[in-house]
Amino acid sequence: MATFLYKLGRLTFRRRRFVALIWVALLAIAGVGMATASTATSSSFSIPGTEAQRAFDLLEQRNPGGSADGATARVVFKAPGGEKVTDAENKREITGIVKELGTGSDQVAVAADPFTTDAVSQDGSTAYISVTYKVNSMELTDDTRTALEDAGKDARDSGMKVEIGGDALQVMPHTGTAEVIGVAIAAVVLVITFGSLVAAGLPLITALVGVGIGVGSITALANVLDLGSTTGILATMIGLAVGIDYALFIVSRYRAELAEGREREEAAGRAVGTAGSAVVFAGLTVVIALAGLAVVNIPMLTKMGLAAAATVAIAVLIALTLVPAALGFAGKRVLGRKARKASQDASGATGADSGAEAKPNMGTRWARFVLRKPVWVMLVGVLGLGVIAVPAASLEMGLPDDGAQPKSTTQRQAYDMLSDGFGPGFNGPLLVVVDGKDSSDPKAAADRVSKEVESLGVAAVVPPAFNKAGDTATITVIPKDRPSSHATEEVVHDIRDAGKDVQADSGAEVLVTGATAMNIDFSQKMNDALVPYLALVVGLAFLLLMLVFRSVLVPLKAALGFLLSVVAALGAVVAVFQWGWLGSLFGVEQTGPIMSMMPIFMVGVVFGLAMDYEVFLVTRMREAYVHGESPGQAIVTGFKHGARVVTAAAVIMMAVFSGFIGSSEQMVKMIGFSLAVAVLFDAFVVRMAIVPAVLALLGKKAWWLPRWLDRALPDVDVEGEKLQKLLGDGSGSPQKPGDGDGDRELARV
Known about the structure:
By secondary structure, the protein is α+β, with helices and mostly antiparallel strands. The protein is 63% helix and 7% strand. It starts with a helix and ends with a helix.
């Protein structure tokens, strides 16, 4: 592989104008597609294989109560102190608003009068208008949304409190200025790392090109592929981080090759041949982790993972082609002034001067410290992450509703008003579906289900409503507790258990659905899928890393280190978002259960990123070991060349991910935080401390591989040993294009 990538690097360097033109054309095509595409809608949410989804599909098929795809809203009214909503003046205001909503937009299907639908609280203080739309929330026009927001203006002027809940006010999530700040921090880190504005700008520009192509394509195809509105944001988060990092590693290796006296084209070829090999395998681990989300069998999660994986694949291709092409345009300006001056001084120095040993850098000094105290470094790192991971034992998962919104939002205030007026369970009604197609008396079966549910101690049970065919009934059940409570979850399980007895006696199948039941089933599906997902992703990546490192223990250590960092990251997420520790610092206004999809999504992304650092850092050690250095010295060499770059890459990723903490979307905020802390733990504790400590303790055993396995595994030559031999440059001495047998063979490129 190293030889092929070496040829590719030299080819793209020479044909840089043609390569740049291709990528600019692809960016333009993606931009046009994004500009001309219709607005992305919410991705259809389904959970195949769950009872809640089967019930939903049954309702869609037999349509007892109309389509469930449209957006909904609840306009909630609370009368001033001492008054009731049933008072003549207040009632007249609310009735007028019902008419306004019903005629204000052709997208409104139904605006229900609370005085005819029994939507008034027992004490008369609260009432609500249920509004159902013909389209989903992302397809609502601005005029329709404005009409909804202005619906209670006159009522507010008269003294009533009016708030609006439901998904009709849902809009595209935004990340705010924090995302820009994250990119700005990345730029500062690159300038400090390289000491050159040109070298710092190159990874940023190429990464933005990759993200532009990826996100532009996702936006253009969003409605065709049902990708949803948040897929592009998550692809941006991952694509921008890995795009900068992959370009960073190529540029850093290119500068190192120039410092050794290589010609520019030769330096580009060697940089892509060596660091590029690490980029390919690091990118493959990320792609495997993201594409592996398909194992969960949640279409929305699968599409998010595949879209982000495609963006990562584009970042790898750009690092291997556009980056060396851009290096050709940059010339020697990719080196800072000090580096260029040092290079000129070195070219005129005497042999004794040129052979002087360079001053040890921070990476070298840290590696030597770890080699002296490997046991202590390992213990401190493992115990420290273990303490942070303790809150993960209290992890509670669920999907957010309006109760998780900040208290300042109208959705949250409407949620609280409904809870106060009608009871906590009113915000999460359950829908019990009785399929009486195989029953001799569907009505009797439905009545029995109603009585069984009432005996469970719920707040209210609405009488069964049948479809036109009379074979399917729906029963609305109001629990006593809030939707995300354990008590409500127990009610769902109790209803399902009671339904089994009904089916056994009458033949009528009983199913529980609704948003609350969907959330419960979704969380359970996430829990059930976590172990198979981990087994698949870790197993495939373990095999991939065996190819890279030609070792059994190094991939095993990498996997165990990942598990430690991801559990610690989960502990931090629980502490902040569930317990509220330092919540105000990260903009967490409302604590609650961790979103069900977050842990498994974080596992997928963090595993890929963790393997990035493992590959970039340890391949340098492997390269030094293969070229004859002792295990201990190979660790020092790896840190000498890789620690600074890996540190910069980690800080950049943390900055980019932290930018998404400012998002208005709770899921994006939580994922941004979790990825940022996971990178912090994995890069600086696991990869920079625990990994070298373990390698120091293992010594030569770290690179052990059974002979039979060594013969069975293909040699992908990530460390470039075959490339060195082909170039006739095993000593590492500078070589110009055209010198030696190896270059005559490669001149055909």
